[in-house]
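Subject: sequence -> structure tokens, single chain

Hey, anyone have a minute? Need the predicted structure for the following. Not urgent.
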Amino acid sequence: MTPDLDSLATALYVKTDDLLKASPHLAPWRPAVGITPKLTDAELVTLAVMQAMLGFTSEAKWFRHARAHLRHLFLYLPQQPGYNKRLRKATDLPRRITRLLATDTSVWSDDVWLVDSTPVECGRSRETVKRSELAGWAEYGYCASHSHFFGGLRLHLVCTLQGLPVAFALTGAKADERETLLDLLDAEPELLATRPGQTLIGDKNYFGRGFEHQLAEHGIRLLRPARKGEPERPGAELFKPLRQVIESVNETFKGQLNLEQHHGRTPAGAVARIMQRVLTLTTTIWHNDQSGQPVLRSLTAYDH
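Reply:
Had a minute. Here:
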């Protein structure tokens, strides 16, 4: 399998189409009587991934490019408003496809996970955050790693050492990382049902005797750097290189997939566009794994 954008798009379309035919309940609900969309759900997923992969944050520019260069892949391309509406209404479909692709990789069963959260800006000023339709969910908070205040959300991510998303959540900027992680694990108990002794590596924010006790009840061994005043903890020699891995995953989202230029102005719009990036990273890892590429998280062969 050749690692280029056309082969990735074709493989994703075929995989998604087969999944939806085998499990039609995964597709967005439609009335039994009505007009059948000219763009299928599998084509919608493929088009969304290609947009994120090629770095188009403007849908107007994306469709100008698609009509000029992608007619050999799509017999029909919708107008920009129709595409936007379909994406907002189908946010659960990319989430489900993301999980199905992830479980079809050789690294899904890895026994070491990384956990972190990264800011997703929706505005810098307090007034912008207050006036936005995201107000009440997006919050004004502080990013310690970048030393600045921001208004927006946080993407909480549990991933493998290769960067494959295992679980993720979007919260307000002030959400507690520990509570969010526990909520993720409670929401999907099947993730750990077949993984006794899973190791989880996080930063200093994932601390607390009660928190670690709850993780132990889930069968998780937590490794993190020691906080000020604490004795050295096990696995200290692993933290620096593995911390660089999770920072690299966040940089893939922000530097290559333009996570912070999502332009979502409503809850549905923000979720759709951020989910689009998570699906794109998962698709890349899945396709590289299927085609035997040495670096699973590399987008280089597809982003041009």
